[in-house]
Structures are given as structure tokens and as C-alpha cells.
């Protein structure tokens, strides 16, 4: 209220002084009123709307005029405040575009419609009226210099009084839009499209990696190649393109906001500009360009060139500054690990099979893998001794193993001195018995030694040179006191590296098919290629003769009175009798030949190697060597059974039944079984004769047959011994033998396990001395580990289903 009074006083003073000072919001002082007149008089007005403006010097509309005229937007309700005297609640105002004298009647002029005035009083309705408020809506005057003048109603006389042509009482109307509405709408749509285009290209083009574009231009689809070739020149100017698009996008958004604010106002302008810029200028274009950036960028490349040219004055220097500060942009570079991971992550979309992905990843990982990680340990490598002889058995063993290359060692397995290839043996005659050392010296293959830290890519390059496809891995040893040495610890082959590359195992004809576990590994019986038994040469002739002399003179069951020399020769020479147990340094489980408390039906004569013998409950341990024998009692034949064997014709030997344990199968009575009270363990590689009771019985029957033929009792000429030995061999193969000849370590555990679920009533041996304390639940055992003594001690009867040691 105070402010209004002050404004009224200022207007009156300025009017009286004849000055025309300007204000931001137009407030004009009018001419002096007639003295004593009660008619309402206006001294000035003020446009209350933000759409008003004043014509100032320098404005486009100034046009050289000295006066300053307030303006308002045409055809819009605009609030104005009028100042004057004798204003009442009945006061109204009109506007005319015709000039007139102050106090002149406006009836002769063309006027606008009437606008009521709401008068404000000082100190209530009984006070002095200081101003009035009215909302006016005027049409646009087509003449640029035409203005509106005020006409105010006189309630006393009912006339409209012209307020004169004072500059303080003039009002100009202007159009709301600076161009036609349809042109503004078209411009808004164009700006919206440009804003979306610049925003989308900013993401779509700059997200395309230069390296990826070059790849697409080389190996992409037909259209992709064209698109990539169009975009590469633009993408090479990375920072220049970035600055041009960002500046153009900001300029388009700013103009769009101004245009929206022009055709609307207030909250509507904010809402429409936000929706237009965010939704149609950012989200939708970036989503489209992110998916189809290559095609959109290629199609709009000429627009991009124009934008870069238009904004070059600003964007080009700025891009050079960014190049200087950030450096030249380079494409994405993948190392091996990232490239492998990229292939694996995109495997579902890159049309690659899992095997192809494995091959790619395996090939890329060769450089970080070492031969020490994929080598075959030396203990698992099939090797030949340097002094070995390539006879039929050795060649048969090589064939069964199925390896192409075989290292040759001397003295110990770590001392590799040569290499044999399977093709070198193609023209050998096993009967020639050529030495391995002879072939090694003849072919003299180059040996490749590498350290365990050698990477697979280096090893592959070495294999590609053709020196060898097998390398020996050496490990560095240094104890600080002696000179450092290298120790051979394993081998690696070209096949191992290829398996690492394809990430899968390679199987050949001699390997077991891992996908068909039920398919047996093919290890054909090579005896068909030889006219002699397969394992007959396991014991050389000198050793066979020594074994014959020892058995026939030192072991009672094999003397001439029990078995003939011819049959004993055949028995020793038979392939099912010679056995070999091999021990590796890494073997943990003991290789049992005999085990205390477990029944055995065979006799053993050690020919080569060392065994460890543990005797009795006291656990006395000693080592024994060649020509030590065990289990003579297993060959003992009672007189009644011996008499049965002497009958003519011979009784048929019973065939083993699946439920019958593999002991005493050749007996026709329930006489004694051999249960040792000692344990024999192979301490080194052991070569021995294992004569089973069935073998011995077959030899006795053949001896009796010979004696009867000489006496003329029978004329049978069939080879009974050969038939019985062959039948025993077939039974052993069908039920599983205790020892595999000339191959890896085996033990008597198989026989024990086959008996674990069977209940066997073990018969008692004959006790020479009649002891009153004799208990029928005891069993006699030989005290001597050789089994040749008649001294017997009494042991508790062992139930085959429950052994204190956990076995049978």
C-alpha cells in the first residue's frame, strides 16, 4: 500500500515537471487534471505481465523514436495497473487507436471492448482511491507504428473520456510469436530430430571401436562391410567428431527449449521440453543407435560432415586440445586371456561349437603352459633297458604296450641313452635275439632334453623342426655344496601338446575308448605268431637247467621217484609257470607272494630278485634271494589220492564251479590244504617259478602214464600233461590268475577276494606225533618258511569267512 502511494506521488511529480524517466516495468505519469474536476483522470499505468516489454534504444522496434512505449502480447489476457485520481468502483476503461485531446469524448472513436477496473483504496473503502487493477485483452494492430490510447468512463455523466496522447498513456500490442505458428511447429520438430540424431550418433559412432570397424570391413557381411567403410573415415577423427556432436546437440536442445517456451509458458514449457529432450532426444535415439549404430551412422554420414564443418570453428581447436591432453585414440587390444574369455562369453552368439572354442582357447594358452605341467612321469613311461634282447617276448611286450617310441635307459631309468621307434622293429626276426644297444647305435636318434619350465609353444616349434616328436624333461637340482645337476623326470610328446591344444584326449587303435568303458582293451594273444609257448623264454636255458637241477635234487616232491625228468623239464618250460613281479619306486602297496593265514595252492621257487620273509607270530624278518623255495606242503598228495591217480583209466578231474574257491580244485578228496604262517613280499623285481597243485598233479599223472606205457599196462599215447596244463591255463585266464606274467606288479589279493564270500571247511593235515592235547579245531603248519621240514606247530583253524587279518 505504501509502495502504491509513493508511485502515485512520483507520477504526479514527474507529470508536473514534464520529465519522462524510464522504468523496467512501464509506469507513466499523466497530464494534470482540470482543477476542481471530479471526473476520473489517469496519470499512468503499469503492465503486470512478464510478456510486456519496452521499446528501448537499440531494440529492433525502436525505429528512431525518442519516446518509450510499453508493449503487451496481443489476444492474451494481460493484467495492468492504472494510477490516477477520482477512481471509483464503477470506473471502466477502453482502448482506442485514434489520437485525441485529453478530456475529449471517445464516442467518436473506434474503441475496444470495456474492461472493468477494480479500485484499491487507502485506509479501506472510505479512504482515497490510489490505483486500479484491470485485465485487458487487445487485438494486434497491423500498423507497426499504431498504439492504443486510454479511454476512461465518467460515472457522473456516463461518457468515455479520452486520456490524451501522452507517452505515459500509450500501449503497443505485439504478436506472441516471432514467426508463424506452423513454422515454429516445423522448426520444433526439426530441432527435436536433430537433437535425437546428434545424441544417438554420439553413442552409436563413438561406441564403434576402430579395431572392430576394421575387422567388420574385412570379414563382415556384405552390407556391414559397406557400412564400416563409410564410418571408418569419420571414426578416425574421434575427438573432432565427439566435440562436433556434443556442441550441435547442446545447441539443438537450447533452441528447442526456447521454442517450446515461446509457444507455451510456465510449467507446460518445462514438462514438454523435458519430455521432448529426455525421451525423444536421448533415450529412444541412443537405444536405436546402440543396436543399429553401423547402419544409422552410414546413412547420416553426410549430415555429420556438415555438422563438423559448421562447428569446426569451435570443435576443431577443442579436439586438438583433447588430442594433446589425452593422446591419440587407439582401438581395443585383447591379450590372450581376454581374447579367450571374449570367445567363451560370446559362445552362445558367435556360432562356434564348443569343440572349436576349446581348440581356440587351448591354442592361445600354449604360451603360458609349461611342459612340466603336462609331462608323463618317468615312472609311468614304458622303457627298455640298454642291454635287453629283442626276442619274441620282448617284442610281444612292446606290441602289447602299443607305443610308437620307447626310451632306452642304462643302469637307471633317469639315464636315457637312446630311443627306439616301433617301425625300427618291423624287419627284426625274434629268433635272432638282436640287442637293443645294437639298434640304438645303428639309428642313433637325436635326444631332445628340455627343462620343466619350457613353454608349450617353444616345445611345439622344436617338434616342428623334425628333430624328434618326444622330448625328455629335466629338473634342475642344486644343494649348494655340489655342482648343479639336471635330473630327467618325465617325457612329453607331440601328441601331448596337440591334446592340450584341442583340450581332449586322442585315442588310437590300441588305446581304450574312454567313451565305451565296456569295450575291452584289445590285447591280442600273440602266441599265435610263435611256435613256442608265449612265456617260455622268460627264463633263459641256463636258468631253466639250474632250476631243473635244483628241484630234482633238493626238493622232495620233484625227485625222480615222484615226477619224471622229461615232465619236470616241460613243467619248468611251460609259460604258465614262469612269473615276474615288477616293482616301481612309487609303489606303496606290498606285492605279496605268500601271506600268513591265507590259503595257497602253489609252490614258489625264487630264481632272480630279492624277497622279504616275515615268519611266525614273532614277526621275524629276513631277506632271501635266488633258489629259495616256499610252499612245498601245498604239493603234498595223500596216499589215497595218489592211489586214485594210479587207476586206469584216469579219473576225470573236476571242473571248477563258480561258487568253489580257487584252492584244491584238482583234488578228489578233502585232504590237507596249505595255509602258510609266513609272509613273502617281493622287495625288488622278482622272477620265480609258481607251480600250482593242479600243475603238479598233471605232472604226476603224466609220469604215471609214462611208467604204465613202459610196463605195457596201457597203450595210451595222448599228451595228458599238455592237455591238463592247457586246461589249467584256460581256467586261470577265465577266473583271473594270481600273477600276470612279465607285466606290472600283482599279488594274491585277487585269490583272497574271490574267496571272501565263500565258506570253506578247511581239512586238517596229518599230525605225525600223537599229542593228548590234540584239538580237532587246529591245523598243522610247517615251521620252516621253505615248507620242507616235517616239524609242525599247531595253529588255530582259520575260518575262510573271518580272518583276524581282514582277509580270507
UniProtKB/TrEMBL annotation:
Signal peptide as annotated in the record: 1-18
Domain CBS: 375-436, 443-509
GO cellular component: basolateral plasma membrane
Compartments reported by the entry: Basolateral cell membrane
GO biological process, one term: magnesium ion homeostasis
Subcellular location, principal: membrane
Region (Disordered): 21-48, 763-808
GO molecular-function terms, A-Z: transmembrane transporter activity
PANTHER family for the chain: METAL TRANSPORTER CNNM (PTHR12064), UNEXTENDED PROTEIN (PTHR12064:SF94)
Positions of the CNNM transmembrane domain: 177-356
Repeat as UniProt keyword: yes
Recorded topology in the membrane: Multi-pass membrane protein
Domain spans labelled Cyclic nucleotide-binding: 592-635
Highest rank taxon of the organism: Eukaryota
Record's keyword terms, sorted: CBS domain, Membrane, Repeat, Signal, Transmembrane, Transmembrane helix
Entries under Pfam families matching the protein: CNBH_CNNM2_C (PF25562), CNNM (PF01595)
Descriptive protein name: Metal transporter CNNM2
